[in-house]
Amino acid sequence: MKLRFIGTWIACFVLCFGCVAGVLLALHFALEPAPQARFSEALFSASGFLLLLALILMAATGFLAQWLTSIYFKPLRRLAEGARIIASSNPAFRTEAQGAAEACQLAQAINLLAEQREGAVKDVAVRIAQAHAEINEERNRLAALMSELAHSVVVCNAEGLILLYNQRARELFSGRVRTPDDEDSPTYIGLGRSLFSLIERDLFTHCAEQLGLRITQGEPQPVTAFMAALGASRLLRARMAPVMAMAMTGGGNPGSPKEISGYVLLLEEVTEEVFRGERRDRLQQRLLENARAVLANIRAAVENLLNYPDVDAARRQQFTAIIDEEARRLGAELDHATREYSDTIKSHWSPEQIRAADLVELVRRRIESQYGLTTQASGLETDAWVNVDSYTMMLAICALARRLGEVWGVRDLRFRITAAGRHVHLELEWPEARLPAATALEWEGAVLDPAGAPDSLTFREVLQRHHGEAWYESDPASAHSRLHILLPLAAVEQPPSLHPSRDNRPEYYDFDLFNQPGQSQELDDLPLSELTYTVFDTETTGLDPSAGDEIISIGAVRIVNGRVLAGDIFDQLVDPQRPITGASASIHGIRPEMLHGRPTIAPVLAAFHRYCDDTVLVGHNAAFDLRFLQLKEKPTGIRFTQPVLDTLLLSAVLHGDLESHVLEAIAERYGINVVGRHTAVGDAIVTGKILLRMIPLLAGRGIVTLRQARVASQRTLYARVRY
Question: What is the model's pTM?
């Protein structure tokens, strides 16, 4: 030990002396006038000897510097990297004893501390496991309760991020729907996903505003209902209730409700119910028309018999035959209708019941915020309820207000509500502008959507659906015009409560997403720990995308709230429409016969694009996978514009002094078991776990946000690799 210590100081002395002597000799030789003799003579001269000595000293100095670096500096830097891994990611990791004796002793001390920390971590893990067991018991109770519900249940936060759903909801939204391009495509539901990918945002916002209004009016447990389209061919009926955040008292106990922190939705598919209702209506209409004709014929025959009692027997028999034939015809129609509709005995869907005053208040808010008009309300009967689809009716009235403002320059509107027998009379009044009768009729037939979408409803169709009426009148005496809308009066029914009694409701502790905002703000400025990620990997026919190799498998998994959601994966084989090389097949094990009948890349990329919407893409050596996706942009029209993180580059940022950055080496470094290597989903799951271990290490280096991680990644040598 002492001899090595002395040798190190001698080496340092020789190193310093050699550097100084070499520099002085080189300067001496450079300043001395060049000799006229030949080089062989100059070599044996004093100056030549000094030059040779300088070169030898400089070479020895270089070897000594390399030796010192290998036994001191490199081992110390590796020890520092190992200590960071032990402290932040993997307590079971151990440093290697390399280099000088002092470095080896330091490695042993670090490993000793690591063993102690690992023991403490295991002890804490046992306690956490016990706490998790208790929480899981509560979760299992919740799961058992939700599995017994006949409805699909979805809970989201105020930003629309899904934080809980049951199996029925998963089955409801995992069905196939029709896209605008008439292609079958799956809908995705999962933790941290936006509810607005399933339900129209404006419709949800409208119902949320309605609930907020009813809470401000003092209603203790408001519930609203609405109908929503799922794709182009499915209909959902939903009931929606708010989840209130509790204000904390001074003692840390929950107090009174403070504000809406989320919503509970009970969902039910009613596509078949609505279809059967339409069938029933058509059947009733046909039966009515046929019965009217039959009864008219019977009535004519009976009138002839009554008016002409002395008619001869042959004529009387003819009329009697007509009555008999028409009666039989009517009976056959009734029998046919009974058989055709015997399996559709069920109740009608009733529109939402809402206070007429609340409907007017929602209409006023929208008109003032979107069109800049001034509105007033007077004479509102607060006890008047109507049976309407409040969202559609609000759009219809707002469309009229928009046209009044844009076409006739109306700036002030006044609303009134009065009860009129079995109807509610809603009056919309404005000064001066007098509409021609032709204009009023034209507006009734105009679509509500200003863009003129072909599937938009007209104001007249909205009235017909609600069994309502509307008419326009002007008052020359007061120079005011009025639009009258008559809607059916609804009997007030208290909806079933979605709020269980607080005394019987257990507490749950896994709703962290209640407080997590959506990712609508700039992603680059968000902390890495708060982002939602899609970790993906591809398997291909070969390693050269520019030479025509194709994707044969895409696998992905999502990371939400710091957890890898192994139950929310994307796994799809792809028909590459070209052969697979033997070398590639030996790696991933995908054989050509496994790809027969699989979809081509275009529909798979479309589904994957929906799967990873509003997330950050993550891959290991992601440049390779992204090159394949980029080459498909032109033929498919699908672009992946999400920000990307690469665990290969992040490993180079964190562990630049370590030699290997392959997936297996990083996983071993972090104590992660590799399962399903060289399968797209298996590699994606391993990569996701690696990313979660890297986030605290990056934070230790001051790399906290997505922008900082991307900038640091681009500074590494691996970022220069191109495919």
Answer: 0.60
